[in-house]
Structure to design on (359 residues):
């Protein structure tokens, strides 16, 4: 096993690109590159940003104190590829073609694999990978039923962070992730609650476009009949309706802000409107945890709460007071996507996990 393996991590976001170089588990270079709205408006599609972002990344790497040609692997944030099992995947032509064509939607994370592949080609002996993209799909068959054959429940969730936290928790209690039944809650701009049974997420709410708890900027599940009446009222366009569900739903719709820190501060200062909405969001998260406990037939070894909003002990306690009887609750604030990607790449390079091929 190599002791000085160097891994380049690339994580493109909507307005920034994070890059880091890890030597083993230790980060030795970290940079967040900001992209101004003025620059991004020049591109019609996200994939049009590909060359622009790649060039900036390469410039940053050339200016770093770490020799670029010492990098052993490049791993990018996985984008909207087709549904795949959890794991580390080599970036190949099939994956590149799907991402360039945006077959399953446009998202900044689509650029991660594309840029990783190109940079790896410039290095002496580096491979390019992705790990646990948002489309990881391990749903059991019953979880796919929605109530109508035209609408199948899909697996889109914070797979990278949920899996990383679950594995880290298992290690902390000296057990294997594959031997545990866990409920993992990611609290961020979107909220997803997954039922992890022996290493697989057999059910999870599709928090991206309307399933489960409302969040700082997403509406979550809505009463379908009322939604149809609004949609066909002639008042709102398809784009406006989409914004109600993702972007301007949830806390944003109720309070005019998607900043959970501000909302919590106002709630704790006695503003009844803010308090009601924050308590309502915690209430819905707790209900989803309860639902996932039934998926696991009551066999729950632990409830893990993670994500940015998990930094608020006050908000976490609103959830915990409703679910602590189900199973022990553990709070792991924040998320370390860069570290999780680096860890996955290191495991793959060292042969500790299988490198999968995208078909």
């Amino acid at each position: 096993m190599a002791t000085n393996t160097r891994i380049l991590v690339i994580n493109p976001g909507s307005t920034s690109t994070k890059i880091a170089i890890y030597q083993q588990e230790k980060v030795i270079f970290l940079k967040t590159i900001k992209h101004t709205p003025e620059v991004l408006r020049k591109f019609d599609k996200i994939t049009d940003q590909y060359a622009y972002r790649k060039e900036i990344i390469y410039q940053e790497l050339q200016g770093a104190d770490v020799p670029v040609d010492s990098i052993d692997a490049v791993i990018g944030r996985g984008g909207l590829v087709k549904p795949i099992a959890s794991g580390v995947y080599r970036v190949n032509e099939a994956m590149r073609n799907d991402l360039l064509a945006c077959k399953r939607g446009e998202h900044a994370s689509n650029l991660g694999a594309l840029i990783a592949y190109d940079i790896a080609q410039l290095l002496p002996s580096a491979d390019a990978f992705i790990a646990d993209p948002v489309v990881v799909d391990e749903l059991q068959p019953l979880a796919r039923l929605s109530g109508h054959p035209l609408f199948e429940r899909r697996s889109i969730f914070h797979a990278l962070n949920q899996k990383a936290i679950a594995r880290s928790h298992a290690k902390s209690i000296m057990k294997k992730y594959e031997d545990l039944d866990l409920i993992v809650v990611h609290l961020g701009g979107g909220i997803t609650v997954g039922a992890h049974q022996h290493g697989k997420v057999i059910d999870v709410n599709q928090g991206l476009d309307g399933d489960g708890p409302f969040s700082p900027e997403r509406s979550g599940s809505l009463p379908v009949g009322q939604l149809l009446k609004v949609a066909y009222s002639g008042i709102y366009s398809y784009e406006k309706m989409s914004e109600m569900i993702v972007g301007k739903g949830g806390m944003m719709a109720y309070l005019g802000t998607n900043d959970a820190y501000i909302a919590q501060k106002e709630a704790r200062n006695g503003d009844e409107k803010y308090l009601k909405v924050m308590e309502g969001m915690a209430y819905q998260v707790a209900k989803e945890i309860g639902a996932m406990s039934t998926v696991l037939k009551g066999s729950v070894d632990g409830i893990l709460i993670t994500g940015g909003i998990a930094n608020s002990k006050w908000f976490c306690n609103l959830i915990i007071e409703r679910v602590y009887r189900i199973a022990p609750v553990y709070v792991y604030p924040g998320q370390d996507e860069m570290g999780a990607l680096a860890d996955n790449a290191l495991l793959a390079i060292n042969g500790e996990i299988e490198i999968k091929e995208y078909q």
About this structure: DSSP finds twelve helices and 14 strands in the chain.
